[in-house]
Design goal:
The complex is a heterodimer of chains A (324) and B (306).
Chain A lengths: L1 H30 L1 H8 L5 H11 L5 H13 L13 H36 L4 H15 L2 H20 L19 H35 L2 H8 L4 H23 L1 H14 L5 H11 L2 H29 L7
Chain B lengths: L10 H10 L2 H18 L1 H4 L33 H37 L1 H16 L2 H14 L4 H4 L5 H11 L1 H15 L3 H8 L4 H12 L1 H24 L13 H14 L2 H29 L8
The chains are: A mainly alpha (324), B mainly alpha (306).
Chain lengths: 324, 306
């Protein structure tokens, strides 16, 4: 087990390098960092531009440039953003913290209710409850997050204000303008709608996963064996059913990080929530290479990390799986 | 059917019966059919032109009324007519790019599944990695790269054109299809009839095109429906964030209309947000239902001897 994890970790380092090189290539070709620097700073001197090219590793030779960028990135000499010459790390750190908060709130709420709905649906397949849950999940998956975001904004903020004089939930930011310090209640209020938007997708997805996984398990031979031994139905369901049904769900959860982040990007943008998504769309729109590359590294690294978690947890949860 | 065996059905007939028993899917077929007729006959069904102003400014925002069933937008254009023209473009984008991506994906998936080995390993690694990334990020980056390569210009056209979007989603959507087809081919190639074909000396190409692909029609059709939805929703997501096709020559798309909804929310022009979103939801839901029923109908594991 330990050796397996070690080998997987060792493998993820070359993968990370290859993928970041591809990202570097794509950004160089797709956003043309030097041109966007000149566009944002039209009066930059020749020396400034040369310095910008140097610190970002934007040499004409892509491979050389990549290694130059990599060296600066690893040694912590991150170039400043092209607009306003801001330091990248503080901005990235704040964005990560905000997204982590929103993402984990939505994931916890979503997976919790999703699993419950899935179990309820699977216990009586074909019944009224099953049809209801299944259909709602289907509808939930079919509605793209930006549509539900718009609808919630329209209903809970704009029209609520018209009908009742005050909007139920705010629609943008983390705190009201000018607010300083920490306020849990305010924060939750601001997070409510974006969390709901992301959570709906998660609930819909996971209720389906859980349902089909549990149905598979319920029809298996060992469930019959467990029942025939005279174990109480409750115990059969929890110890034999749930434990086995959760194995594939956990794995999928770890692999799903990409799509959750995708939903977050869209949602954050609509609610002007200052997280990774807003960060990305802003810097991508400006072609801000110094801001974009570290963001990409964080995303690539977390995708690889959760892939690793998925594989390891799969092996760890299910003793039937042999590594090697 | 022959006289002596009225109860024996061909697999295709069984699939058809299973499909028809899925009520939501049948209703969805009707909805999509009516919608398609509506948009094909756009010059007849639309009440005004795409860019025709119904109500001159300053009071260009009309609420839904007899003159304009679904209200008007910021320059007084009739939303109902624009929706018809928009859905026309969106359905075209969905179908065209789905055909590209399914063709590409089916070929790659079949070859990878059939040959196995290194090619298969690399292909699946690449698709896994691609699918693991946030969809919008990959889409935006790939979009820019495609737009920046000058030698692609003759194929893709201008970055803000509908053709560009079709090529983009065509190139983007094949990976999911490839995985599905690969899985199907992997299980098919161990079956007796393939072995028999190989035994009589059929070439690889013959086996893939005559045995493996025709037997994967079910999953491929399912992948096609989901690709159509993917492209339609993808287009509107791109347009929503301002990266979609541009409204040149008076053309519009569902994405452009949904994108306009963003600005309409805070000012309370609810019809501009609700109707385009509703149409998008109905289209996505209907096609998804059809795809779901197709999967149930063509998956032999679910065969309950209907």
């Amino acid at each position: 087990m330990f050796r397996y994890i070690l080998r997987r970790v060792a493998w993820s380092i070359p993968t990370l390098l290859i993928v970041t090189f591809l990202v570097y290539l794509a950004l160089r070709i797709g956003t043309d960092p030097v041109a966007s620097y000149k566009r944002v700073n039209p009066r930059a001197s020749r020396a400034k531009i040369a310095e910008y090219i140097d610190v970002n590793g934007l040499d004409p030779n892509f491979v050389q440039g990549y290694f130059k960028w990599l060296k600066n990135f690893v040694t912590g000499e991150w170039p400043r953003s092209i607009k306003g010459r801001r330091e990248v790390w503080p901005a990235l750190k704040d964005a990560m913290a905000n997204t982590l908060r929103l993402g984990s709130a939505a994931t916890i709420v979503g997976i919790f209710f999703g699993l419950i709905a899935g179990v309820l649906a699977a216990l009586r397949p074909g019944g009224k409850r099953d049809v209801f849950i299944n259909t709602s999940a289907f509808v939930g998956i079919s509605i793209p997050p930006f549509i539900s975001a718009i609808m919630f904004q329209l209903l809970f903020a704009v029209y609520w204000q018209r009908w009742f004089g005050e909007s139920l939930f705010p629609t943008s930011g983390v705190y009201p303008a000018g607010h300083t310090g920490f306020d849990l209640f305010l924060m939750l209020k601001f997070m409510a709608l974006p969390t709901l938007v992301v959570a709906i997708q998660i609930v819909a997805t996971y209720s389906r996963y859980m349902r089909s996984s549990l149905l598979d398990v319920l029809n298996s031979d060992y469930m019959r064996t467990a029942r025939s031994k005279g174990i109480s139905e409750r115990r059969v369901l929890i110890k034999h059913g749930m434990r086995n049904a959760l194995i594939p769900v956990v794995t999928i959860a770890a692999l799903d990080v990409g799509s959750i982040v995708g939903g977050l990007i869209i949602t954050e943008n609509i609610f002007s929530y200052p997280g990774m998504g807003l960060y990305f769309l802003k810097s991508f729109g400006e072609g801000d290479f110094p801001l974009l590359m570290p963001w990409m590294v964080v995303i690539v690294a977390s995708v690889l990390f959760f892939n690793l978690i998925a594989d390891v947890s799969y092996a760890w949860l299910d003793p039937r799986i042999r590594l090697e | 059917m022959s006289k002596q065996s009225p109860n024996v059905l061909s697999p295709r007939q069984m699939a058809f019966r299973r499909f028809v028993s899925h009520k939501a899917a049948v209703a969805s077929c009707v909805i999509i059919g009516v919608l398609t007729l509506f948009v094909i006959l756009a010059p007849l069904t639309a009440r005004y032109g795409v860019n025709e102003s119904v109500q001159a400014p300053p009071n260009s925002f009309l609420t839904p009324r007899a003159k304009s069933w679904l209200g008007t937008d910021d320059i007084g254009r009739d939303l109902y007519s624009r929706l018809i023209y928009g859905v026309r473009v969106s359905l075209l984008i969905g179908l065209a790019s789905a055909i590209i991506s399914v063709t590409l994906g089916a070929l790659v998936g079949a070859i990878a599944g059939f040959r196995g080995g290194k090619f298969d390993d690399i292909m699946m690694r690449v698709t896994d990695l691609f699918l693991a990334f946030p969809f919008l990020v990959t889409l935006l980056v790939v979009r820019n790269v495609l737009g920046a390569l000058p030698w692609l210009r003759p194929i893709t056209g201008d970055m803000s054109s509908v053709r560009f979007i079709i090529v983009l989603f065509g190139l983007f959507g094949w990976m999911g299809v490839a995985r599905i087809v690969r899985g199907q081919v992997l299980s098919l190639k161990e079956r007796e009839f393939v072995e028999a074909a190989r035994a009589v000396g059929a070439s690889r190409r013959y086996i893939i095109t005559r045995h493996l692909l025709p037997n994967s029609v079910g999953p491929i059709m399912v992948a096609l429906t989901f690709s159509v939805v993917g492209a339609i929703i993808g287009e509107s997501t791109l347009a929503f964030f301002g990266y979609g096709p541009q409204a040149g020559d008076g053309a519009t798309s569902l994405g452009i209309l949904v994108g306009a909804a963003k600005g309409a929310v805070q000012t309370g022009y609810w019809w501009l947000a609700v109707f385009p979103c509703l149409v998008l939801i109905i289209i996505a839901l209907s096609i998804n239902f059809i795809g779901d029923a197709l999967r149930d109908a063509t998956d032999p594991r679910l065969d309950r001897g209907v």
